[in-house]
Amino acid sequence: MTQPTPLFDYTGHLPECPIWSGEEQALYWTDILQREIHRYDIASGGHRVVSFPEEVGCFALRRGGGFIVAMRSAIWLADADGTLRQKVCDNPSNPQLARFNDGGTDRDGRFYAGTFWAPGDYNGALLVRVDNRLKVSVIQCDIHGANGLAFSADKKWMYTSDTPNAVIYRTPLGADGEPGARQVFRRFGPGEGIPDGAAVDEEGCYWSALYDGWRVARFSPEGEQLAEIRLPVRCPTMVCFGGADRKTLYITTTRENMSAEEVAEYPLSGAIFTLPVTVAGMKTLPFIAD
């Protein structure tokens, strides 16, 4: 297999939430700790950075332009230049202790955003959903660090991970999209890495960025590891599929909490890697508000 290579000459602090725009042929991502959303045009190499007043844990492109952004204190609708237009809701967690983290859209264009419980004394994080009418619901709780959100093509399953607890879950979805009881999909032991952000391909397989594991792994719908991609950095954070045929894997990585010595030894920590793959990823929908 071809080895992952850096997308361009860039390293961030905590790049996360890569999103491919098929219409624009551009990659978006957030650098959470830098309070930025980035856009990289594949054809021209143009790189644009939009600043926000707080950490952007996750976001989605909006149908018609702009973003829905989950910042530390609230979820907002924003213009493409970062202007905040409408507050959707406050962070239902304590924003001093739990910022928004991983999120994205489902197959109906609804937006999900999870939080990360910083104290770590119990599973105090949660997952919320913003529907197409901007109604907000708490979908799941009993989470330490929400991550790994992805949906099956048939709308029957939602995948999530709890990174500090080293577990991936899958949750059955009803015909109306309402979740049932979550199930353990896979647990991870010492040395395997812990599951961070993820995406699903057209064959129904789940690709997970294994933080602290130096790798990305592909799992069957039954949880069997089918393949892995080794990386030259310790902490990948999330993956997405892009390119004209959605057969390019983009991998965000981080240098958060790394010593100067580790960054010097592994200077690509915080880079975005790209890799051609043989299976296409599922198309990511924008957030759709009625």
TrEMBL record:
Superkingdom, natural source: Bacteria
Lineage, highest ranks first: Bacteria, Pseudomonadati, Pseudomonadota, Gammaproteobacteria, Enterobacterales
Keyword Plastid belongs to the record: no
Molecular function terms from GO: calcium ion binding; gluconolactonase activity
Gene Ontology terms describing biological process: L-ascorbic acid biosynthetic process
Transmembrane segments: none
Sequence ranges assigned to domain SMP-30/Gluconolactonase/LRE-like region in this UniProt record: 14-254
Protein name: Gluconolactonase
Binding site for substrate: 99, 101
Active site, renumbered: 196 (proton donor/acceptor)
Family: Belongs to the SMP-30/CGR1 family.
Residues that bind a divalent metal cation: 16, 147, 196
Cofactor(s) recorded in Swiss-Prot or TrEMBL: Zn(2+)
SUPFAM superfamilies documented for this protein: Calcium-dependent phosphotriesterase
InterPro entries assigned to the protein according to its UniProt record, in alphabetical order: 6-blade_b-propeller_TolB-like, SGL, SMP-30
Cofactor note: Binds 1 divalent metal cation per subunit.
Keyword field: Metal-binding, Zinc
